[in-house]
């Protein structure tokens, strides 16, 4: 089990070790979340690497990753706990056959750990030999407000109350990462319990570093052109601008095609890896991709000459 | 405030806490929801982070105080002004080597020039304009049996100030739509087709497990979100105010109503409409908007909505109320595409057009022809009766009477 980082610099290193290139701001908030034992709420557009942070933390700290994918209608029985009804029924029948008459004892037996089915939230609160697990509550905005209320107890006191059983409290605070794509606003009561960070698209330098770490097979020149192109189209008027995940997808597609540099035909053939809306692809097809390409190439040669 | 001692003078942790508390107060004044709990958190964060430079200090406080992306900029401004003036950060982290400030310096937020004037103007304009119309109103009033009935059928544009006030009260009493959609969440039901194993089992255990008494559950119902896009251009001004009243009443009763105003630009006034008092809510809205009674750029504003808001507010089966006369200033080049996109992103798109009050209305204007194919319903909204009809129509699905196709056919 790895130690928690002792400083912000350590956090940057730790994340870099997990091939996550974080800027200082993100490292600060991750460090504080670990240090202060507070849940971390990450918001941002799709594909900027919010979920990845939890995975990398679990990987580098050697903790178990418990993931709760949110969806509409998520409820206690699939997120927190459920009783094993069949098992309980069997226990009752057996008790009857044996002639047990003590009702109180029977109830204690039936509502015991043995018949408790642990769902992600409860699992995250259970002791783990590798240290407290990393709990990833992914895309919280997909559930409704009612579910957020269940989370409040977990996020502030790291415990869950089961009416028939009692309160289960985590022996050690789990590392909680909550992500949201902001398809609706998360309630203030929940936000108040978390440290908040908006994960933005990376700048050129950081995106290049990410590409180097994640797609080492891409030739240097190709990587530079990919990043310059993606950065350029992020400033275009698109319905959904590509995130880092799309950049990486596109890079691996181009590597598979043995590309060494971008050219207009190649770009228009592989644009589907980068843009996911037909309108956006159309807007880029009509000569615009070529214009951007020319621009970034002119800039690159300009820089080379200056050096 | 002015005699706040600097950290260097005392050097203790107490001063740091005090300064952060002052900073929190400044943030609160700037409109960030900062509670006393977060001050304690902030002190703990700064201590835990053992800040090395200005940027670390900035992001540590940011992590605690900012809970919303939009607040980032306000925080940045407040941070810059507050901590620079006192030159405090350098003192706090005096023992470490200071680097250049990393807080990105963007341009200051523009003061909303004339916002107040606009608010005043808006509040007065209704009355002045209505003076000359008083006479023909009186004529029609003589014909009526009951005052309320007149009010029902009366065009909002022809109402006097007094009538508008009465209409506003009538709107408050309006029966609001009880439209409900099934969610994927289950609630207990007396009878039904789905068995709820959890409750069934608990019940049977109560009786010792001998008999299994079945309990049922069903899908929970709830109001879908309503998103109103409301045109505030000059041609609509007589209707906008009362429609906003309608939205305010709606906002009070249901949880998820989002309101956007647009003329030449798009403004989200959802928060402003949440004030309890309708007049205050409207005054807040008008203070927030800068393009009252100007022209309309429907295409541009819809584009902005589609890009920036549609994914945030149109989830979970939203109904969109598009309130506009469809008279586009900029030509209708991009309009069909934006309408189509909007139509695809919501469950139901209802176009409310006060122009429909004219019997001879024909869908001739270019903007109207561009928009009609992409709406589910096309309804008038010029008097209380039509507002009531809208409330009813929202409650029941697709009666067919507001089908936009019939308007298109009529023109041929």
From TrEMBL, chain A:
Short name of one Pfam family: AAA_5
UniProt domain AAA+ ATPase: residue ranges: 36-202
SMART domains for this protein: AAA
Annotated protein name in UniProt: MoxR family ATPase
Organism: Alsobacter ponti
From TrEMBL, chain B:
Transmembrane portions of the chain: none
Phylogenetic placement of the source organism: Bacteria, Pseudomonadati, Pseudomonadota, Alphaproteobacteria, Hyphomicrobiales
Cited Pfam families: VWA_CoxE (PF05762)
Source organism (scientific name): Alsobacter ponti
Protein name, per record: VWA domain-containing protein
């Amino acid at each position: 089990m790895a130690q928690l980082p002792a400083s912000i610099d350590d956090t940057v290193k730790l994340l870099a070790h997990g091939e996550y290139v974080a800027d200082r701001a993100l490292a600060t908030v991750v460090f504080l979340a670990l240090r202060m034992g507070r849940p971390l709420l990450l918001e941002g557009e799709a594909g900027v690497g919010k979920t990845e942070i939890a995975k990398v933390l679990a990987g580098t700290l050697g903790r178990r990753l418990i993931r709760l994918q949110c969806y509409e209608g998520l409820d206690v029985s699939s997120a927190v706990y459920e009783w094993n009804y069949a098992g309980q029924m069997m226990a009752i029948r057996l008790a009857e056959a044996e002639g047990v008459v003590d009702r109180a004892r029977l109830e204690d037996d039936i509502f015991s750990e043995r018949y408790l089915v642990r769902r992600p939230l409860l699992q995250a609160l259970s002791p783990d030999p590798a240290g407290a697990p990393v709990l990833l509550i992914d895309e919280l905005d997909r559930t409704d407000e009612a579910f957020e209320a269940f989370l409040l107890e977990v996020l502030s006191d790291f415990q869950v109350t089961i009416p028939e059983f009692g309160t289960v409290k985590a022996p050690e605070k789990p590392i909680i990462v909550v992500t949201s794509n902001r398809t609706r606003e998360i309630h203030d009561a929940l936000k108040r319990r978390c440290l908040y960070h908006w994960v933005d698209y990376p700048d050129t330098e950081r995106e290049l570093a990410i590409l180097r770490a994640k797609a080492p097979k891409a030739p240097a020149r190709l990587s530079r052109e990919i990043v310059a192109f993606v950065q350029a189209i992020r400033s275009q008027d698109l319905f959904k601008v590509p995130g880092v995940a799309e950049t990486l997808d596109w890079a691996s597609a181009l590597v598979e095609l043995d590309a060494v540099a971008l050219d207009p035909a190649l770009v228009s053939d592989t644009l589907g890896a980068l843009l996911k809306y037909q309108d956006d692809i159309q807007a880029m097809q009509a000569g615009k991709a070529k214009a951007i390409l020319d621009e970034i190439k002119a800039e690159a040669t300009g820089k080379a000459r200056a050096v | 405030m002015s005699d706040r001692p600097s950290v260097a003078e005392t050097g203790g942790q107490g001063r740091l806490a005090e300064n952060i508390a002052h900073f929190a107060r400044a943030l609160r004044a700037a409109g960030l929801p900062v509670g006393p709990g977060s001050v304690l958190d902030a002190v703990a964060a700064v201590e835990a982070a053992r800040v090395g430079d200005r940027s670390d200090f900035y992001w540590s406080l940011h992590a605690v105080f900012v809970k919303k992306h939009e607040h980032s900029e306000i925080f940045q401004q407040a941070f810059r002004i507050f901590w620079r003036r006192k030159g405090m950060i350098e003192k706090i982290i005096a023992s470490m080597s200071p680097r250049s400030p990393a807080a990105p310096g963007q341009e200051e937020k523009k003061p909303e020039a004339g916002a107040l004037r606009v608010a005043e103007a808006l509040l007065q304009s209704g009355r002045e304009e209505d003076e000359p119309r008083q006479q023909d109103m009186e004529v029609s009033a003589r014909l009526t049996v009951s005052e309320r009935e007149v009010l029902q059928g009366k065009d909002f544009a022809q109402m006097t100030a007094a009538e508008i006030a009465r209409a506003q009260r009538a709107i408050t009493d309006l029966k609001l739509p009880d439209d409900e959609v099934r969610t994927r969440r289950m609630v207990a039901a007396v009878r039904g087709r789905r068995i709820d194993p959890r409750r069934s089992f608990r019940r049977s255990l109560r009786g010792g497990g001998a008999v299994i008494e079945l309990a049922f559950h069903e899908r929970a119902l709830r109001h879908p979100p309503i998103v109103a896009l409301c045109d505030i251009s000059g041609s609509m001004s007589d209707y906008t105010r009362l429609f906003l009243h309608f939205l305010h009443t709606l906002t009070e009763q249901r949880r998820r109503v989002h309101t956007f105003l647009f003329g030449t630009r798009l403004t989200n006034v959802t928060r402003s409409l949440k004030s309890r008092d309708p007049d205050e809510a409207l005054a807040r809205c008008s203070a927030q908007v800068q393009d009252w009674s100007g022209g309309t750029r429907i295409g541009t504003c819809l584009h902005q909505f589609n890009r920036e808001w549609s994914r945030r507010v149109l989830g979970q089966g939203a109904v969109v109320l598009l309130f506009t006369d469809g008279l586009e200033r900029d030509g209708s080049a991009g309009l069909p595409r934006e309408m189509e996109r909007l139509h695809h992103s919501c469950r139901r798109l209802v176009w409310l057009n006060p122009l429909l009050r004219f019997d001879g209305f024909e869908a001739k204007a270019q903007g109207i022809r561009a928009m009609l194919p992409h709406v589910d319903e096309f309804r008038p909204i010029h008097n209380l009766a039509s507002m009531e009809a809208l409330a009813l129509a929202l409650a029941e699905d697709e009666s067919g009477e507001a089908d936009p196709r019939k308007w298109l056919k009529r023109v041929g």
